[in-house]
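To illustrate this point, we now present one chain and its tokenised fold:
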Amino acid sequence: MRNIAVIGAGSWGTALSHLLAFKGHTVTLWAYEPELVEILRRSGENEIYLPGVGLPESLIFTNDLQEAVSAKEIVVMVPPSQRLRGLLTGVAPFLDPNILLVSASKGIENDTLRTMSEVVAETLSPSIADNATFLSGPTFAKEVAARLPAAAVAASTREETARRVQEIFSTDYFRVYTHTDVRGVELGGALKNVMALACGISDGLALGDNARAALITRGLAEICRLGVALGARAATFAGLAGMGDLVLTCTGGLSRNRQVGLDLGRGKTLDEILSAMKTVAEGVKTALSAYQLAGKIGVDTPIIEQVYQVLYQRKEPKVALGDLMERSLKSEREALE
């Protein structure tokens, strides 16, 4: 059994803490908000981000980063992607150089356009960054906390490290596969959120199942095209962190990104939607980074472009979907290249 810190007490960080503690590991869960720590200690439940899930009595809660990570063998980072750099900088002085870092954040940093592995490499020592592992795949926090069957992938450039994470996280209801294509796994996990926004917009406009299926399929082609241009392996996007996570996030009722898209399609403004949310819809920030990144390297990503225009240029959702349909015609073989 391991001594583990989980940094980030949102729904996914709480669900992973729940999983690891029930497996018998000693787990300290760090929360940004002092008031949330008090709620966790008092009620044994994350009433804000994962209500209705009783947490193990063995879980330790803290708002102190040094207390959270000191003397830990494993540190699991689960903040929103745009906060990862700041938190890594904060914990860096307290990390043992031999710790195993696991990142479960999904996104692309704004401004720098860095992926999460690049953020890790820029903020931590090579001994930690070179051994880091990235956890992704089709997993809703609420279902994992309810111990419903799920599968995920642990990606590291070092196969033996990925296997360590696989063993630490796997249970009889949470099956973890290993992978060595870190870039593909993290881009699949980030970009699927943008496609979920598109599918939500389509559903909000009541455009039907055919439209959703087309968006998922063409969205996967875009993810693959952009991912390969950035050094990922095409086959990775047929797996859990690609197609698996894409289908779940584009169709699942628990998808925050799909819900934001639904509300946009039904006429709400982005400001109205985000102001009413307690949790983070990663696709909103990732759409900006993905659009800029695709433009920077010259990759055609029409769905990402239209989502960006809806979010950041206030384009009418119906016009955006129409513009996708009216693009120049081509063969599917050409469209997949």
